[in-house]
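Lecture notes, structural biology module. Today: joint structure prediction for complexes of two components.
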Amino acid sequence: AQSVTQLGSHVSVSEGALVLLRCNYSSSVPPYLFWYVQYPNQGLQLLLKYTTGATLVKGINGFEAEFKKSETSFHLTKPSAHMSDAAEYFCAVRTMYSGGGADGLTFGKGTHLIIQP
Amino acid sequence: NAGVTQTPKFQVLKTGQSMTLQCAQDMNHNSMYWYRQDPGMGLRLIYYSASEGTTDKGEVPNGYNVSRLNKREFSLRLESAAPSQTSVYFCASATDRGRGYTFGSGTRLTVV
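The predicted structure, tokenised, for the full assembly:
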């Protein structure tokens, strides 16, 4: 079974500081990993994803994440926080379902990123 | 605009009422999903459909039914709404092999 743990339900950083949001996963198959962002009262927007290939993945808005198999981690970083980065961030892992060979996403509980001026 | 369209965006129900949430995608995706989002819980899978004509239960299916009407449409029905079903509901669709998922903008449901 697949699962995702996001460390820290709330993370607060100063504007201009490094953003680090932690994600650890459990997967019985080679993982596909995703980070989504949700702004208040909006839907989910894909930030970046890892499927195969290069383990350092660059996404939108200056975010990147590194897949580390040995640590079962996929932490999200951004060198310099901006006020507009304040949002909820979700890590997700591709999950294989037993019925019909389908797959979907299992999400972490989310991390609320707060940016201090 | 290509994507996943959900209706309605907002709904208030009284306990015991029924309603259907509609979802349609125009990306020719085979797989479609219904999730619910609750504070501090992330998104949890209610039902999914791997292809037209098939549906399966997810993590939290109790109190819900679904219909995969055709390849484009996947509806979620609450037969007798309960306050515990107050949530934000997201529909999603995906390409084969799990490389790309697209989410709708959500339906905010309140059951009083």
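Point to remember: The CA atoms of residues 10 and 110 of chain B lie 8 Å apart.
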